[in-house]
Amino acid sequence: MNNRMMKMIDANKCTACPVHNVGNLKKLGINMKNYDYVVALAGNPNTGKSTVFNNLTGLKQHTGNWPGKTVTRAEGGFEYNSSKFKLVDLPGTYSLLSTSTDEQVARDFILFGQPDVTVVVVDSTRLERNLNLVLQVLEITDRAVLCLNLMDEAKRNNIKIDERQLTKDLGIPVIPTEARQSVGMQDLINAIFEVASGKFVCKPYRFKSKSKELNYAIEKLSQEIKEAFPDIPNATWVALRLLEGDQSIIEAVGTGELGNIKQVNTSLEEIKLKVESI
Amino acid sequence: MVDPLASLIVGFIIILFLIWVYLPRKGLLVRLKRSKKNTHRVLIEDSLKHLYNCEYNGINCTLNSVAGNLSISADEASKVVKKLEELELITSHERGISLTPEGRAYALRIIRTHRLWEKYLADETSVGEEDWHIAAEEIEHHITPAQADALAAQIGNPVFDPHGDPIPSAKGDLPVKKGNVLNTLKMGEFARIIHIEDEPHAIYSQLVAAGLYPGMQVRMMESSKDRIKFLANGEEVVLAPLFAKNVTITPIKNETTVKGKFKSLSSLSVGEKGIVLGISKRCRGQQRRRLMDLGVVPGTEIEAEMKSIGGDPVAYRIRGASIALRKNQADKIYLINE
Amino acid sequence: MNKTNGHNNEAILSLANNLRWEIGESFHDKLMESIFANATTIAQKSVTTPIEKPTFSFDRALDRIVTSPVLGFPMMFLILAVIFWLTIEGANVPSAMLASLLIDTFHPILKDFSLTIGLPWWLGGVLIDGAYLAGAWVISVMLPPMAIFFPLFTLLEDFGYLPRVAFNMDNLYRRAGAHGKQALTMAMGFGCNAAGVVAARVIDSPRERIIAIITNNFSLCNGRWPTQILIATIFIGGAVPAHLAGLVSAGAVVGIAVLGIVFSLVVSWALSRTVLKGEASAFSLELPPYRPPRVLRTLYTSLIDRTLIVLWRAVIFAIPAGIVIWLVSNITVGGESIAEIFINWVDPVSLIIGLNGVIILAYIIAIPANEIVIPTILMLTVLVTSMAGVGSGDGVMFELDSVTATEDILMAGGWTLLTGINLMLFSLLHNPCSTTIYTIYRETKSVKWTVVSTLLPVVMGIAVCFFLTQIWRLVVGN
């Protein structure tokens, strides 16, 4: 409650600031035709990802206290600071490294769909486990925002999170939210806007392995990949996927399509079709 | 009105008949399928596979070994070998029989399908370990290379089968053979099992019954002509030397070896904590990946939180979340024994 | 793309393959371990958790009660009983109101209206007696219980109680080769099988999910309860002394529901050991923290997402059924309606399984909605026995307020106690309604599993009725 009061006071102080100008936000539901930016929404199951999605778009997807409830509608939109954002809700997954269809759709969209921003929604009470997915996302993309959701629950359990430290360590904006109470959504939207428009330049954390064997293999392979495809920003991820035998990456490397990834911009539907056809 | 007794009898007869036809393993349908198995092509493909295995393991193959391996008469075996020669898949010489490049490529295709299918059954289905090989023996003759590639793509292009054998790539590449048989390990030395031979089936099922699997750490205790005694994950196992020959190991340095016994997650009582040492290799495929996604990796602290009414499953606190695991899963998660 | 580049790509792929052989099978394990080790380092820097655990935690205390060997199961049964009681009691009044409005008031008005505008009698019959009546019937029977049952169930779900139920029930379901969450999809199935099938989404293990979908039909759904209660009251209650009638017939209905649960467990067990061996199984069950449910939001979403969608599908399927029902009883060939010809034709066969031609025909044309089975049976019985003074004409479904009047019609149709029992069994064990069949297909995207879940119960039903009938005749005589 206090938090909300603070925000209202803040809003009164600085009506001209885009951050606090609620009037700048328009919830566009599913009526999206032309958009300036694509935003992907990733996260573990049962972290309130759908609540965040509904909150941003004004849609009413069913949510429940169960992992993995969302199945239907995956796209919506909103307008902020006269830029139109298309929001794509990815399947909720614990990881992006396995063979399940959901995970494949999610990782292929972040890699091939080239979203302008990827928002990772995490459960603040289980940050450590959720960071697993965050670190994987940061291997694929440079532009991400971390949404620390369910802060109310964290507070109830006396868990404190130092957002500044986290921002520093991960190199991306970290926004605490309580989506169920619509707290922090303005900050989230603003962070999305800043990353999308390039005002905030992310310096994503890249993970380091302690296994020598692993490091040798990853480094050797990513070296080769960088030589063949000098333009791609995530050679390590490609190397990881090749070492896991991911078919879509093998094909993208084999045909050389990986080099043209910047122009591809595949939609979620195309990726789903492709994944299902395997 | 139909006589009830008569119709009752007819009803029972129909049910018995259906059971007889559809019974798994022994039913008519299964037997019909099996009798079709020994066709010409199957014999040819099986003997190519056998010849390739000889070559890979550096053994000389003869007409007799072909006959023995395929359990056919020497007469039939010579017919098959003759046919193979006509097809230019093999060449015979005084030291035995060897494969031509075409024959080798053919054999590798069959082996690839076989091992892929075993990997598929192990990771993506609930088919029991003892049935993988039998099922793969059958399916390997019916899948085209294209279908095999599609299967490989679907299950993440695996490079090892569940027994620890490398799976040939689509182009027919295969790494050089590594490791030694268990019998060569000296007393007190440590090693890791890298492969368990699945032929002949009788020996394989004994090894599986003894709880051995690739990835297991062993320490030799006694190696004599009569018996091989060793510690496998801390448990004592005794095998006949003949059986031990079907287990391939690679020596490991002492430092990575776990000292002493370790306990399973299921041994924790409510309120107790432990640090994960690893997940047993017997836990495979989706189940294994799920556990790791939930944060069950070496170094994670796990606390047993509460029991369900029946005592199984038990909820564990894993990296901040309550996750219920069944006893047979918790048995396969090992903790450091302090 | 030039050639040298293409060559490089191939080289990368074969390098990757060789590296994989070198690392061995543990690549994924080591990678996950590294990522989590990194995550731990980062989290330790920015997260502070209370060092001392609070002496009292609401979640812990509640969990202790919920999983207590003494209180756990009684509490679960009590909560379920309250939900069912609220559903049945609460739905009575609005159901009756809807029925009187849609069937007793609007139907005659529409009928009169069609006469005034001079609609041909057959067109009025097809549209008003067939399509409209079937749709109205389904709405009045289905809507009120679903609108009560689903929100209540969703509230429990949002609160976090249902995962605990799955946690406690898993011991039983594991033995049957299924997932503890199947207890929930089954409970949902008591409301509506189609909704139960959709609810199976929460089971994330492929094999257990298909088991839950195939066996959901063994949960006696809301559309079948009225049939059970009516038949039990007439035949089972009628067979015992009057002062026991209420108790015994209620016991018979509960017995059928319990039998359904037993069947679902047995079939789960058999499926997991035979045809479903080819599906992967991966158990994990997360117990989320308790969260205060948001009542208004839940009411809204469960009404929209579950009730209305399911109802809409049911109505869409019921309307053609209504048309077919009207047509088969009104199109005549050689002086007899198609319905009569069919009934006479299947009667001898259906008597072997202790049913009759009317029941078989009613179940065939009422596949779209179990709710209209009884009205259809009554209408067809009147049609076949040529009773005078009952019903509203050929092809017009009806129901009677008085149980004795219904009994009179059924007795005239040649029904016995055995027919009653068999109908109760067959109502439990027959193909799912077409809404459910369609939902199964949408959820599994597999023709094979859809066919299995459609045919398995009906074959079982025929077999059970057949053996019961023969034994009955041997022991009791006709």
Describe the model.
The complex is a heterotrimer of chains A (278), B (338) and C (478). The model of chain A is unreliable at 1-22 and 64-73 (pLDDT under 50). Chain A has two domains: 2-197, P-loop containing nucleotide triphosphate hydrolases (Rossmann fold); 212-277, no CATH class. Chain A is an alpha/beta fold and 278 residues long. Chain A has twelve helices and eight strands. With 338 residues, chain B is α+β, with helices and mostly antiparallel strands. Among the domains of chain B are: 40-99, Orthogonal Bundle (Arc Repressor Mutant, subunit A), CATH 1.10.10; 180-256, SH3 type barrels; 263-335, Ferrous iron transport protein A (FeoA) (SH3 type barrels). In chain B, 41% of the residues lie in helices and 20% in strands. Chain B is built from twelve helices and 14 strands. The radius of gyration of chain B is 24 Å and the shape is globular. The model of chain B has no long low-confidence stretch (mean pLDDT 84). Chain C has a domain at 318-475. Chain C has helices at 3-23, 27-46, 58-66, 72-116, 121-159, 161-175, 182-191, 193-199, 206-215, 225-239, 242-273, 295-330, 338-352, 357-365, 373-385, 403-412, 417-428, 434-444, 447-475, and strands at 47-48, 285-287, 332-333, 336-337. Chain C has a two-stranded antiparallel sheet. In chain C, 52% of the residues are buried. The mean pLDDT of chain C is 87. Chains in contact: A-B, A-C, B-C. At the B-C interface, α1, α11 and β13 of B face α1, α2, α6, β2 and α19 of C.
Q: Characterize the biggest β-sheet of chain C.
A: 2 strands, antiparallel
Spatial gap, N to C terminus of chain B: 77 Å
Return the CATH architecture of the domain at 180-256 in chain B: Roll
Radius of gyration of chain B in whole Å, from Cα? 24 Å
What is the tally of helical segments of chain C? 19
Order of strands, widest sheet of chain C: 3-4
Instruction: Classify the secondary structure makeup of chain C into a structural class.
Output: mainly alpha
SSE layout and pairings?
The complex is a heterotrimer of chains A (278), B (338) and C (478).
Chain A: H1 2-13, E1 26-29, E2 37-43, H2 49-57, E3 75-80, E4 83-89, H3 101-112, E5 117-123, H4 127-140, E6 144-149, H5 151-156, E7 160-161, H6 163-170, E8 174-176, H7 185-197, H8 212-228, H9 235-244, H10 247-255, H11 261-264, H12 268-277
Parallel strand pairs in A: 2-4, 2-5, 5-6, 6-8
Antiparallel strand pairs in A: 1-3, 3-4
Helix pairs in contact in A: 3-12, 8-9
Chain B: H1 4-22, H2 28-35, H3 40-57, H4 63-70, H5 74-86, E1 90-93, E2 96-99, H6 101-124, H7 129-139, H8 145-154, E3 180-181, E4 190-196, H9 201-209, E5 217-223, E6 228-232, E7 235-239, H10 241-244, E8 247-251, E9 263-264, E10 273-279, H11 285-293, E11 301-307, E12 314-318, E13 321-325, H12 327-330, E14 333-335
Antiparallel strand pairs in B: 1-2, 3-8, 4-5, 4-8, 5-6, 6-7, 9-14, 10-11, 10-14, 11-12, 12-13
Helix pairs in contact in B: 3-5, 3-6, 4-5, 6-7, 6-8
Chain C: H1 3-23, H2 27-46, E1 47-48, H3 58-66, H4 72-116, H5 121-159, H6 161-175, H7 182-191, H8 193-199, H9 206-215, H10 225-239, H11 242-273, E2 285-287, H12 295-330, E3 332-333, E4 336-337, H13 338-352, H14 357-365, H15 373-385, H16 403-412, H17 417-428, H18 434-444, H19 447-475
Antiparallel strand pairs in C: 3-4
